[in-house]
Specification:
By secondary structure, the protein is of the alpha+beta class. It has 10 helices and 30 strands. The strands form 8 sheets. A 6-stranded antiparallel sheet has the order 20-21-22-29-24-27. A 5-stranded mixed β-barrel has the order 8-11-9-10-12. The two termini are 38 Å apart. The model has no long low-confidence stretch (mean pLDDT 93).
């Protein structure tokens, strides 16, 4: 079976732990049996492989997410990279072309597309497999996953089935109606659109050709920024007449906000925090190295991270997106393929960063034209390479990097480094990469 995980997200709804580089699916918030934590991406990927070890998984993601994906699940998963963010219809057709042109998947093969962030149990993946099987053998163009609705939400599309069976045709699909309209659909037996769907690969290529005028991977990738921002549901599902829906009755939760996310947490406190005895239904997620004290709060979420601090009523947290859009956009924490970085101080003409490199990993070999840098090794052992000269570094060593020099650092053990950047124009654009 071919599965494409759709890994989008703007990083606003789980601020301050999420940002445009580290979307919600990368936050390590779910406790595993061994006491460690995993992210939505790691949990979903692990569950898929446990359900079907032979499955072929591809991740469709913006190019900004490459490093964190490699950090969390390794380098072995094919990535279909979106040159920019254009919503789910462009992402789906680009992934379809990627599978066909780059991975050699036949146009007759079924492909299941699935969001990366639902909180589900193992039976969900059996249903995904059923979606793929039905798409492969059925007459319908599309097979959707339908969820039994809990309330008339305005966040989901509504599938009005032709009957009450487990696998039936679809009479109508309506994307994100208003509340009163949603109430009417539920009275008709409507299901929420679960965001997972399947079709034969050729169907996705055909829709690209019909709507955009081309369907090969190279052209789609080159012209991706010119494509209309629109969802697959608006562009395709609402207009499609040949649809079947599979009713899913198992556990499914959309973890789109702090309110829904805290419902799945196995503990009230993550990180250094204390709740007074009068706190009720309060969750704290603290990724900082300073304590958080909560007194007498009720139905609240407190989240503290390098990008900021959130204190919110749980219900109100669902409406935070426009407020987050007004805040400082500087990313102060991100996971990279080699480890992570954490901005400690940002001043005029200086930036201080704590860098952690995983054992056996290294940064890109690169240079900066408009800033000097200094590395101070806090712990571990590795090798600094400056203009081709290699220097073994240990705890306490200092390496000076003048503007224009080519440099990288390689970690023999886990390596922690303070990086001080000095210059009048410190920018991510001031970086030139070289082969190493």
């Amino acid at each position: 079976m071919n599965i494409v995980l759709l890994s989008g997200g703007s990083g606003k709804r789980l601020w301050p732990l999420s940002n445009h580089v580290r979307s919600k699916q990368f936050i390590k918030i779910f406790r595993k049996a061994d006491g460690s934590y995993e992210s939505m991406l790691q949990r979903m990927y692990r569950q898929i492989l446990q359900a079907d070890p032979g499955v072929s998984v591809t991740i469709a993601a913006p190019k900004e997410q490459v490093s964190v994906i490699h950090n969390q699940i390794g380098d072995g998963v094919p990535l279909c990279l979106e040159p920019c963010r254009r919503d789910t219809f462009p992402a789906v057709v680009l992934a379809s072309a990627f599978l066909h042109d780059q991975q050699g998947v036949s146009a007759e093969d079924a492909v299941v597309f699935c969001p990366v962030d639902p909180y589900v149990e193992p039976e969900y993946f059996l249903t995904l497999k059923e979606l793929g099987n039905l798409a492969a053998i059925g007459d319908e163009s599309l097979v959707l996953l339908g969820i039994e609705p809990d309330y008339p939400s305005e966040k989901y599309g509504y599938i009005i089935p032709e009957g009450s069976g487990e696998r039936v045709g679809v009479r109508m699909f309506k994307e994100k109606p208003g509340r009163k309209e949603a109430e009417g659909y539920i009275r008709q037996g409507a299901l929420w659109n679960g965001g997972a769907f399947a079709f034969r690969l050729g169907y996705g290529l055909k829709k690209a050709q019909e709507r955009i005028g081309f369907s090969d991977y190279e052209t789609l990738s080159r012209k991706y920024g010119e494509l209309e921002k629109t969802s697959f549901d608006y562009a395709v599902v609402e207009k499609e007449k040949s649809i079947q829906v599979v009713r899913f009755r198992g556990y499914w939760k959309d973890l789109g906000t702090w309110n829904t996310l805290t419902e799945t947490m196995s503990e009230y406190v993550m990180g250094d925090a204390v709740l007074s005895s009068r706190c009720q239904n309060v969750h704290v997620v603290n990724s900082l190295d300073i304590p958080v004290l909560c007194m007498g709060l009720k139905n609240a979420v407190v989240a503290a991270g390098p990008d900021g601090i959130l204190v919110s009523d749980k219900e109100e947290s669902s409406y935070m997106k426009p407020y987050v859009e007004e805040l400082d956009k500087q990313v102060r924490y991100a996971e990279k393929s080699w480890g992570s970085y954490h901005v400690l101080d940002a001043g005029v003409g200086s930036l201080t960063v704590k860098v952690t490199l995983n054992a056996g990993r290294r940064m890109n070999y690169h240079s900066h034209e408009r800033r000097d840098e200094v590395w101070i090794v806090l712990s571990g052992k590795g090798a600094a390479v400056v203009d081709g000269a290699k220097q073994i570094v240990y705890t306490g060593d200092i390496v000076k990097l003048p503007a224009g020099c080519k440099h990288t650092i390689v970690a023999e053990t886990t390596l922690q480094v303070i990086e001080i950047q000095l210059g009048e124009e410190i920018s991510i654009q001031d970086k030139k990469k070289f082969n190493f």
